[in-house]
Write a structure and sequence with these properties.
Number of helices of chain B: 27
Distance between the termini of chain C: 21 Å
Strand order of the largest sheet of chain C: 1-2
Number of helices of chain C: 20
Low-confidence stretches of chain B: none
Largest sheet of chain B: 2 strands, antiparallel
Structural class of chain B: mainly alpha
Largest interface: A-C, 47 and 41 residues
Radius of gyration of chain C: 22 Å
Oligomer: heterotrimer
Radius of gyration of chain B: 27 Å
Largest sheet of chain C: 2 strands, antiparallel
Mean pLDDT of chain B: 82
Helix content of chain C: over 70%
Helix content of chain B: over 70%
Strand content of chain B: under 5%
Mean pLDDT of chain C: 90
Number of strands of chain C: 2
Distance between the termini of chain B: 64 Å
Order of helices and strands of chain C: HHEEHHHHHHHHHHHHHHHHHH
Shape of chain B: globular
């Protein structure tokens, strides 16, 4: 099996990352923003794996595992917040939450 | 033992902190114990340190204690250090010792005042600041004490702040001395800029190598320091604040005049004598200022009605003597006169305080009289103090110190017959105005009053100061009284002795002449104010004399002069500038800031997606910066 | 005893103890009856005290030398230990200040203490991280705890909104940081910061990938520090969070963020200083300008202090960007120690001023409007005086310590030859002086609006007094703290002689 060239993997990761970033900026629903952030984290995880392969080290995959674990923890907190948000405001529209400004 | 020196300023400071922090929760007894006790302990510590110093002088005749490194910025380094040499010891002992007896006196004197706590807090801070000033090893640190003294004088002169007049007097003192302080600060900058240090010993070491005598920077620096000293020590032309400073309680006046504040200028010049020796022109100016001040203030003292104002002008005059001594290079004589003056001036003020309190706050000497029998203690105290102030030959301390100054004015290369003559006339004036008060207040017929009983907190200070006003001079004696130079020898390692000394024959003649001046002044006072009051009254009626009297009473009209020359033009200018050209500029700045604020807070619109956009745009900009810069 | 003779985990003893005790508190709190709830507070304080003492012992044992463990992932050098000591002390102060506030609002529950302790653990790990994985783990541990703390008051709409914003933006920033880390790993082949510095020094790396990595790392760091343009969460979160949480997030995490910046930029990427210093210059100037101008007309003191945080962090960056001049690291210790001093001092100032907000709040009343400070001098002169000291310190008025902190940083900037930057910094600080002094004016020259009782507990009053007076004492005697910062920074790997 031919090794995946690092550059291609990095470009893929960058595209995924940009996609996630765009999602955060474009989606108004907080749930989708959360999902976009997950995409960004997965993009970085991919980059780590690719880089680990490039250097023939396990470190990249270790990082991958940790990133996944932490992303899960983050989602746990995020979803709890989301529930709270929905209970208080009855909406998940991020733009509706702009009481604090100035 | 010497290591304990930090305690000397720290104890009164601690007293201040405790009193200030107590917030009026302490009873009067504790306040008195803390207020007077802290200064008393400081005095004991000072004595112990001084004894240790004399018993085993440290190498090089001085001891430095670095407390901490205070400011370090670039090449600038100001150490918070204490420097102990014989000069500092004398100053420290006098400040702490006289300060303590004044505190003790205040325990009873201020007993009825509602601001008892505030009073002792300020007084402790005052003494602490002055001790810091005389012990500081670094001019920047000294300046802290210098400003602290100025602040405390403001607080204490305006102590009875409910009366607007007192507040005005306090402001006057503060503003006038600040004028000098500002000049002094510039002088410090100049010294630092040229020598790279503000350490007093460092300056003394580097200055002679860096500057030729009369070089422009050293002349400028010393002139600026002199301006600071003139302000603090109430010399011409910045003497105007001191007579008004009588608005404070009498012990405060005693403290300001005897132990703290006004002597700071004398100390500053003595401390930097190396610099002044490098600038003979400025040093000569010191002598001239001293001579003019001692004459002018002596004249002004002659025309005052208020007992405290007489004493205030006499202080200005006596400090003029000290400046004269500094100006002719008799450093030790100036410090000697400072010490003796501290004793008798504190005594005079404290005695005057007893008189004023006994008469229910009366200050006018022409409403007093015959108090000799009613107030024997005050009478004797005032008589001893007055005799010392008038330099009654041989038996009083004042004679020894003053005649040393006169001798020096005659013999010093920077001195001369004119300076001596001025000082001689001043000595006669001193006797005249002092005994004018003595005869007016304590002799003759006058207001009756019940005998005023005073307790031991007042008696002990008076007794101690009476003793010191007499024997305090027996440490140094001029030619006429058998040569003795213990004081000068003690100071020799810090202050160079005067060269050349007075020739024995001349010295004897000078001593006799000085005695004549003193006796003459007293005799004139006796003639005018006790024996032949009619003469005085006759003189007073003539138009010229009346005009002269008015002039003298107003202190040579300096207040009016300042008012016309400075205050009114300034006020007029301020009125003119009320709507000035620069205002629109400032308004535009403010408007721009407000506009910037509005714009920026609009960017904070509360929308999380906008914020995320900010982060993304920021990252993109950073990428741009990272890749293309 | 040489470093090799030490027990292998010794450098991390403090964190291990914190982990164990925090978990124990989590369990104990479950079984505590309601009336013994106060016990959790004392247990948490005892935990922090124990960690403090243990960290001091670690410093003793290592003699102040850098000690590594977990295969070099974790370093306990002097900077780490000093910052950790300040973190423990700051968190303890937060707990003392906020006890009554939380109790009156029904938030004095085990969650708060456990979250605070775990966040503290996260900070300690961040401070000691010498490896990007450890750094990321510490960061996430801290962040997740703090998000939850902000949302702890479930009845408050504003804190929910604040928590949401904080969470979304924080996660985004973590993503950026992580992405940057992955690039750095791709370019250098190592996650270890010491090795990374060595690899970069040798020079065989892909420049573009490296710079991309650097950029995203700087973006992530900047978010945590809260500098422009990554600052936007700060005003809303400070404003919206319950006062006690604002106090928490405005203090100790700043130290952790500073440590993270030093670890990444100095320990790992000092050879790219020419690049990141340029970025910091821009962000520092923008932060000082935006922070100060936006704070001018705020009516809410928490929001005002939030903007002031932005400007202060911008000022602190000046120290970080003045270290390397033309590739020469000669003056770096001075510059970085000035930045460290500034950060520590800022944390003290922030503790005091938000502590004051808490002390003046009472049941059903939040003292967060500037109007609530009118006439404070008439209501409680001592607290007004302490607030005056704190405001003077924030404004940088001598002789308070704020002045010396600014002086040290400006000194470093001037030594680095960036005179114009120093001038800009001073001018913008001048703008800042306006709104700090306005608080003083309100306290001393206006009539009180609020007539409610001011009754902070005795412990709060003492701690606030110590906190406020420290501004003065440190201002007069900054020498030892300054020297400590210098020694700590000199022990950093790339600067060690």
């Amino acid at each position: 099996m031919a090794a995946l060239p690092l550059e291609q993997a990095l470009v893929l990761a960058a595209l995924l990352f940009a996609l996630g970033l765009a999602g955060v900026l474009v989606r108004r629903n907080v749930l989708y923003m959360l999902m976009s952030i997950e995409i960004m984290l997965n993009a970085t995880a991919l980059a780590f794996v690719a880089a680990g392969a490039r250097w023939a080290q396990p470190d990249g995959q270790v990082m991958f595992v940790f990133v996944l674990a932490l992303a899960a923890a983050e989602v746990a907190v995020g979803l709890a917040l989301l529930l709270l948000l929905y209970r208080r405001f009855g909406t998940l529209d991020a733009d509706a939450l702009s009481e604090l400004r100035g | 033992m010497l290591r304990l020196i930090w305690l000397v300023p720290a104890l009164p400071l601690a007293g201040f902190v405790v009193l200030a922090a107590s917030g009026g929760r302490l009873d009067r007894r504790s306040i008195a114990w803390i207020g007077a006790g802290s200064v008393g302990l400081a005095a004991l510590a000072a004595i112990a340190v001084a004894a240790a110093f004399v018993a085993a002088p440290p190498p090089a005749g001085a001891y430095t204690q670095v407390l901490w490194h205070w400011i370090e910025a670039g090449d600038f380094s100001a150490r918070a250090s204490l420097y102990l040499d014989p000069l500092a010891i004398v100053m420290m002992l006098v400040v702490a010792g006289v300060g303590f007896v004044i505190h003790l006196y205040s325990v009873e004197f201020m007993r009825g005042d509602e601001g008892y706590n505030r009073y002792f807090a300020y007084m402790n801070l005052f003494v602490a600041a002055m001790l810091l000033l005389v012990l500081a090893g670094d001019l920047a640190f000294l300046f802290v004490g210098w400003e602290g003294v100025g602040l405390c004088s403001y607080l204490l002169i305006g102590f009875w702040y409910r009366d607007a007049v007192n507040g005005a007097a306090a402001q006057k003192a503060f503003i006038v001395t600040r004028t000098g302080d500002a000049a002094m600060a510039v002088g410090l900058f100049l010294l630092f800029a040229s020598l790279g240090t503000l350490d007093i010993q460092g300056i003394a070491l580097r200055a002679p190598g860096a500057w030729a005598p009369d070089a422009a920077p050293v002349v400028a620096a010393t002139a600026l320091l002199l301006a600071g000293a003139v302000g603090k020590s109430a010399q011409l032309p910045l003497q105007v604040w001191l007579p008004d400073a009588m608005a404070g309680p009498t012990p405060v006046s005693a403290l300001i005049h005897a132990a703290t504040m006004v002597t700071a200028g004398v100390y500053l010049i003595a401390r930097n004598h190396v610099l002044f020796a490098l600038a003979p022109a400025v040093q000569y100016a010191v002598a001239i200022i001293g001579a003019l001040t001692l004459l002018g203030a002596g004249g002004a003292a002659l025309a005052q009605h208020d007992i405290k104002r007489v004493l205030a002008w006499s202080t200005v005059s006596q400090i003029g003597y000290m400046f004269l001594a500094l100006g002719v290079g008799a450093w030790a004589a100036a410090i000697f006169h400072f010490m003796v003056h501290a004793f008798f001036k504190a005594l005079l003020f404290l005695a005057a305080g007893v008189v004023i309190q006994a008469l229910g706050g009366e200050h006018d000497i022409f409403r007093m009289g015959g108090l000799r029998r009613r107030l024997p203690l005050a009478f004797w105290a005032f008589l001893v103090g007055g005799a010392s102030l008038s330099a009654l030959p041989l038996v009083t301390a004042g004679y020894y110190s003053k005649s040393l100054i006169l001798d020096a004015a005659w013999a010093s290369p920077q001195g001369g017959a004119w300076l001596w003559a001025a000082a001689w006339v001043g000595a006669a004036l001193t006797g005249l105005y002092t005994f004018r008060v003595v005869f007016q207040v304590f002799f003759g017929a006058g207001a009756t009053t019940d005998t005023h009983r005073v307790g031991w907190p007042i008696r002990i200070p008076l007794a101690v100061l009476m003793l010191l006003s007499v024997i305090g001079g027996f440490v140094e004696a001029p030619q006429v009284a058998g040569r003795l130079e213990a004081f000068g020898h003690f100071l020799a390692s810090a202050l160079p002795p005067l060269q050349p000394a007075v020739a024995p024959g001349t010295g004897f003649a000078l001593g006799v002449a000085e005695g004549i001046a003193s006796f003459g002044g007293i005799a004139l006072a006796y003639a005018f104010f006790l024996r032949r009051r009619s003469i005085a009254a006759l003189v007073a009626r003539s138009a010229i004399a009346a005009a002269l009297h008015r002039l003298l009473e107003s202190g040579w009209g300096f207040d009016r002069l300042d008012d016309h020359l400075l205050v009114r033009p300034y006020l007029a200018l301020a009125r003119r500038l009320r709507a000035d050209l620069a205002d629109p500029g400032y308004d535009a700045l403010a408007a721009a800031a407000a506009a910037a604020h509005r714009g920026l807070s609009r960017s904070q619109n509360g929308r999380v997606r906008w914020y995320a956009g900010g982060i993304v745009v920021g990252s993109i900009l950073l990428v741009g910066a990272g890749v293309w810069l | 005893m040489s470093a090799s003779d030490l027990p292998i985990l010794l450098p991390a003893y403090g964190e291990i103890l914190l982990l164990v005790l925090a978990s124990a508190i989590l369990l104990v709190d479950l079984f505590l009856p309601e009336r013994l709830r106060g016990l959790t507070h004392w247990l948490s304080l005892a935990t922090l005290a124990a960690c403090f003492v243990l960290t001091v012992q670690v410093v003793r044992a290592t003699g102040g030398q850098a000690a590594y463990t977990f295969g070099g992932m974790f370093v306990a050098d002097l900077m780490a230990n000093v910052l950790k000591l300040v973190v423990y002390a700051a968190v303890a102060a937060v707990l003392v200040y906020s006890r009554r506030y939380l109790a009156e609002r029904g938030m004095l529950r085990g969650e708060f203490f456990v979250l605070a302790l775990f966040a503290t653990l996260g900070m300690a790990v961040m401070i000691s991280a010498n490896h990007m994985l450890a750094l990321y783990l510490g960061l996430e541990l801290m962040s997740l705890c703090v998000y939850s703390m902000v949302a702890l008051n479930r009845d408050s709409a504003t804190s929910t909104e604040a928590a949401m914003k904080y969470f979304v933006l924080g996660a985004l920033a973590s993503g950026l940081l992580l992405y940057g880390m992955s690039m750095l790993y791709g370019a250098t082949g190592t996650l270890d910061l010491t090795q990374m510095a060595q690899v970069i020094a040798v020079g065989q790396v892909n420049g573009v990938v490296l710079v991309f990595g650097l950029v995203f790392v700087v973006a992530g760091l900047s978010f945590k520090l809260g500098v422009v343009p990554f600052h936007m969460w700060i005003p809303d979160v400070y404003h919206g969070a319950p006062n006690a949480m604002t106090l928490f997030i405005s203090t100790a995490p700043k130290l952790a963020a500073f440590a993270m910046a030093v670890r990444m930029l100095v320990n790992g990427l000092i050879d790219l200083a020419g690049d990141w210093q340029q970025m910091l210059v821009v962000m520092a100037v923008l932060s000082m300008a935006l922070g100060n101008f936006a704070a001018i007309a705020q009516t809410n003191i928490k929001r005002m202090l939030a903007y002031s945080t932005i400007s202060h962090m911008g000022f602190m960056l000046l120290g970080l960007l003045a270290g390397v001049v033309g590739g020469n690291r000669f003056s770096a210790p001075d510059a970085y120690s000035a930045a460290m001093f500034y950060t520590v001092v800022y944390v003290l100032m922030s503790l005091g001023s938000f502590g004051m907000v808490l002390a003046l709040s009472r049941a059903g009343f939040e003292a967060e409007e500037l109007d609530d400070y009118r006439g404070l001098n008439q209501r409680d002169p001592w607290l007004a005086f302490l607030m005056l000291l704190l405001m003077f310190a924030l404004a940088g008025v001598p002789p308070t310590v704020g002045f010396y902190a600014k002086l040290a940083v400006i000194d470093a900037v001037i030594k680095a030859g960036q005179i114009w930057l120093a001038v800009v910094a001073v001018l913008l600080s001048l703008v800042g002086a306006f709104y700090y002094l306005r608080v003083v004016k309100l306290m001393y020259f206006d009539e009180p609006r609020d007539a409610g009782p001011i009754a902070p507990g005795r412990d709060v009053r003492w701690l606030l007094s110590a906190n406020g007076l420290a501004m003065l004492v440190l201002g007069v005697m900054p020498g030892s703290l300054m020297a400590l910062c210098l020694v700590a920074v000199q022990g950093l790997y790339p600067l060690a002689r």
